[in-house]
TrEMBL record:
Start-end of Pro residues biased regions: 280-293
Comp. bias (Low complexity): 294-303
Family: Belongs to the CAPAB/TerDEXZ family.
Protein name listed in UniProt: Stress response protein SCP2
Boundaries of every TerD domain copy: 64-163
TM stretches of this protein: none
Record-linked CDD domains: TerD_like
Classification via Gene3D superfamilies: P-loop containing nucleotide triphosphate hydrolases, sav2460 like domains
Domain of life: Bacteria
Region Disordered: start-end pairs: 184-303
Record InterPro entries: P-loop_NTPase, Stress/Tellurium_Resist, TerD
């Protein structure tokens, strides 16, 4: 039976190998410290954190995430360690809440390797604190116990580590925040939270087979049904988040639904759409035809909740993404459990010298390996069943996607018409996992963009170290043009403007579709003078709109000011940029998104390294994408490394020219 602890309460631990699972509803940092008998942390080597996630006997997450799984082997800890403290902290310097009082209460649970819950604790009563000691695993008279602590620190990790006796606390806290910021820059945005009555897993639970009909994974996942735990709890409801749109520009959607790591929030969050009248109930979602007995329900496009088909499809795509993340986590956990069980059985047999003589040891080894293979086969069967269901859903969802969500080879583009309204989101590519090579999930980001994009034209970090540099630069520019064309295509006429900086003209051939179609207000800026002129104009626009918003005098803006969303494409950075231009670029990256000015950098980070740490915040504030498939993005739940595939126009297709010609014609009509 699980012990539900309150602050200060303890509970004995009967197992040495454990997991501590954390659920917070938004990305947080998880770590652990080792302490001696006096409760002191002797040095930085006694702290496990995202920058150094592994210590003897424990391993923590490598990035900030909404869910964490921390692994402990208490028998493998050094003999001088008498206490292990589990730490939680809110990321700093990347936007978002800076105190636990503004987020849902974190939930922590101690479990065995088989998923059985030993003790749990919901950390309540926090307010201004930004770091907290959640639990302690401590040794008393040779017996390990867990204690619910819940001690918060308004001074963050630096104050927490100082309180534990670490002299280098401030320096270590800075390095942890740096590692977390870099990890968040690689993270995929999380979807809006699901409510209890619309969660896909709960809808499936009613018709899911019983425990005797499907394999039960160690963490409690049965078949296609993810665990129903506090991890799936709905977010807070009832408060209103003020909109942050700029005067004259399009209203922004609910920022709570755009869960980019840099999105600022404060206080309780209302997940309803601002400005939308709720007098009439939403139209009913499509329903699937009845399934045959014992068979899963037939998937239907748009069967998620929402006020429109577009919103339903958006929620359905994110539901598929989350389901794939969690079912893969269940499979990987099952494999880890099978490996651990086999090691335990072999250790038990081989620890007896008599078992190592003759064929008894070989027989025991074969039996343990056979048990492991059986467990892995069962887990793989459950994963394959889930993947087949998701693949069937993808087959009906993909053709039904609107243009903003669809791939370039979708037939919806052949019937394209310039829209009258801004869509909820935009497709930037596809995501897949190694276990699901044949299943890709569209990567959707909410509009307007809250983060700029960094299209990486370098080889650093790519899977193929022999990739041709010139070819990568060309592919990166093609990717940028495809994204820019999609942004132009999904906005109403006159509500999106694209500027291009190409200092040396190296991207002329890739930019030709934008130039020839006439969708650009001006040709790409070249040379130092052109770079300075574009940056000065956009910087002035940001300043004017900011002053108007802060002063509450939106009607005082100059009549010739372009209030449309602005996108600046910068090719071959940092060539052609002096110190002033770099400073202006940093300013646009920091201040521009809030007033409708967005960056799309096409650059090699190694080339930009000459500017030193000046550009590190710029790199972290942008979402890194690659022109070739690469596994550099992570999900906000279990931290899987997802392979990103860019959304490129198929070779030989004329769909890009056809779409841009319609956009240009609509712009000309709008300007008359």
């Amino acid at each position: 039976m699980t012990a539900e602890l309150v602050r200060g309460q303890n509970h004995p631990l009967s197992q040495a190998r454990l997991e501590v699972r954390v659920s917070a509803g938004r990305p947080i940092v998880a770590g652990a410290t080792l302490s001696d008998e006096q409760g002191r942390v002797r040095g930085v080597e006694w702290v496990a954190h995202p920058g150094a996630p592994t210590l003897p006997g424990l391993e923590v997450s490598k990035q900030a995430a909404a869910d964490h799984r921390l692994a402990f082997d208490l028998d493998a800890l050094p003999g001088t360690v008498h206490r292990v403290s589990v730490l939680l902290a809110l990321p700093t310097g990347v936007g978002g809440p800076v105190r636990f009082g503004a987020v849902a209460a974190p939930f922590v649970a101690v479990t065995g390797l088989d998923g059985s819950e030993v003790a749990s604790y919901t950390i309540t009563g926090l307010d201004t604190e930004s770091a907290v000691v959640a639990l302690e695993l401590y040794r008393r008279q040779g017996v390990w116990k867990v204690r619910a602590v819940g001690q918060g620190y308004a001074g963050g990790l630096a104050e927490l580590l100082t309180d534990q006796g670490l002299s280098e606390a401030r320096q270590l806290a800075g390095s942890i925040n740096e590692a977390v910021a870099q990890g968040l820059a690689r993270s995929v945005s999380a979807p809006p939270p699901r409510t209890a009555d619309t969660d896909r897993s709960r809808q499936a639970a009613a018709s899911a087979p019983g425990p005797d009909q499907s394999y039960a994974a160690p963490q409690g996942v049965s078949g296609t049904v993810p665990p129903q735990s506090p991890y799936d709890a709905p977010g807070p409801q009832g408060a209103t988040v003020p909109q942050t749109g700029y005067p004259g520009g399009p209203a922004q959607p609910d920022p709570s639904a755009v869960t980019q790591p840099s999105a600022p929030t404060s206080g309780p969050v209302d997940y309803s759409h601002p400005g939308r009248q709720a007098a009439a109930p939403p139209p009913p979602a499509p329903t699937a035809p009845p399934a045959a007995p014992g068979q899963p329900a037939q998937p239907v496009a748009g069967d998620a909740t929402g006020w429109s088909m577009e919103e339903r499809l958006y929620n359905q795509v994110w539901g598929m993404f989350e389901d794939l993340a969690r079912t893969t986590a269940a499979y990987r956990s099952a494999v880890d459990f099978a490996d651990s069980r086999m090691e335990q059985e072999l250790d038990k047999v081989l620890s007896d010298p008599r078992s190592r003589i003759g064929g008894q040891g070989d027989a025991a080894r074969e039996a343990a390996q056979a048990k492991r293979a059986g467990l892995v086969d069962q887990a793989r069967a459950a994963l394959d069943r889930d993947l087949a269901q998701l693949a069937a859903e993808a087959e009906v969802v993909e053709p039904a996607l609107p243009a903003a969500y669809a791939s370039w080879d979708n037939l919806v583009w052949h019937g394209y018409r310039v829209p009258m309204e801004i869509p909820m989101a935009l497709r930037l590519g596809d995501l897949r996992l190694p276990e699901s090579e044949n299943l890709s999930i569209p990567m959707l980001v909410r509009l307007p963009l809250e983060r700029g994009l960094w299209i990486d034209s370098g080889r650093a970090g790519l899977d193929d170290p022999l990739a041709d540099s010139d070819e990568l630069r060309r592919l990166a520019m093609d990717t940028a043009v495809a994204h820019a064309a999609r942004l132009l295509a999904v906005y109403p006429a006159g509500e999106f403007t694209v500027h291009v900086i190409d200092p040396a003209g190296s991207g002329a051939s890739c930019l030709a579709p934008l130039v020839r179609s006439g969708v650009l207000d001006a040709p790409p800026a070249a040379g130092a003078a052109g770079v300075g002129e574009v940056l000065a104009r956009l910087t002035q626009r940001v300043d004017l709109v900011q002053m108007a918003v802060r002063g509450g005098v939106a009607d005082s803006l100059p009549p010739d000011l372009d209030t449309a969303e602005q996108l600046l494409i910068v090719n071959d950075f940092p060539h052609g940029f002096d110190d002033r231009a770099v400073t202006q670029l940093r300013y646009l990256a920091d201040e521009g998104p809030a007033v409708g000015v967005h960056l799309m950098m096409v650059a090699d980070r190694e080339d930009a390294a000459a500017y030193g740490p000046l550009l590190d915040p710029l790199w972290r504030s942008l979402l890194r994408l690659t022109p070739v498939p690469d596994d550099h993005l992570a999900d906000p739940w279990v931290g899987h490394a997802w392979t990103y595939e860019p959304a490129l126009v198929p070779p030989g297709s004329r769909v890009l020219q056809q779409v841009l010609s319609q956009v240009a014609a609509a712009r000309r009509s709008w300007n008359r």
